[in-house]
Each structure stands twice: as C-alpha cells, then as structure tokens.
Design brief:
The protein is α+β, with helices and mostly antiparallel strands. It has a single domain (about 5-120), classed as Trna Endonuclease, Chain: A, domain 1 (3-Layer(aba) Sandwich), CATH 3.40.1350.10. The protein is built from two helices and five strands. It has helices at about 5-25, 70-90; strands at about 25-35, 40-45, 50-60, 95-105, 110-120. A five-stranded mixed beta sheet has the order 1-2-3-4-5. The longest helix is centred in the first third of the chain and has 21 residues, at about 5-25. The protein is globular and about 40 Å long.
C-alpha cells in the first residue's frame, strides 16, 4: 500500500468513525487535539462523560483488530494528553473515559466501524 493510499484510508476511517459516533449520540468537541504530551484523535462528550477517542484503521483484520494496536505506551500517552486537555479547558473534575474505534475494510465506501466504549483504564 502506498503512503497516499494509507493516508486516504486513514482519513476515510476517521470520517467513518465520526459519523458512527455522532449516530450513537457523541458530541464531537475537537478533532486531532495535539499538545507536547501527544495527540488524541477525537474528544467528545457522551452520556455526561468526556470521552477521549483513538481511531485505528486497517485494511484487513488478519493481523488482529485495529483496537489491538492501542498498546500500553499509547494508552499512557493518551492519558497524559487527556489530562493536558482537561487542564487547558478547566475540566479536571469531569468524569471521563477512553474509547477506541476500530475501522477496517478494503473499500473506502464500505468500512466496518466498531466502537469500544471504556476500552481501557490507565492505572
């Protein structure tokens, strides 16, 4: 797969993730939040909680679910980045969670999207 193909798939995956999340009642607050701690693909609010979301897109599942690629190091970086976001927006007392959205498929118009609510807890 060329870099352009991967980029197009990644963008299509994030768009499909946003569409699915909105259909499930998530209010998207920010896309691609970045700070010196790291990056979070989507920040949303749902059911009274602040939700930090990692979107993982893959062409095939043969190597495992895209969510399986959110390893402990990534989880810790997301937690530090989430704390930075919450501090920056005066939301440190808000209940929050981490969700992962797995997107996969061969064709950009036919991607499967699975939302894993409370996908991990950072200790």
């Amino acid at each position: 797969m060329s870099e352009g193909d991967a980029s197009a798939l990644g963008k299509a995956g994030e768009a499909a993730a946003r569409k699915k999340l909105e259909a499930l009642g998530y209010q998207i607050l920010q896309k691609n939040y970045r700070c010196r701690m790291g990056e979070i693909d989507l920040v949303a609010r749902q059911d009274g909680e602040l939700v930090f979301i990692e979107v993982k897109t893959r062409r095939q599942r043969e190597t495992g679910s895209p969510a399986e690629f959110v390893h402990k190091d990534k989880q810790r970086r997301m937690a530090r980045t989430a704390l930075a976001y919450m501090g920056e927006h005066d939301l440190l007392d808000e209940p929050s969670r981490f969700d992962v959205v797995s997107v996969w498929g061969q064709e950009l118009g036919h991607l499967r999207v699975d939302v894993i609510r409370s996908a991990f807890v950072v200790e």
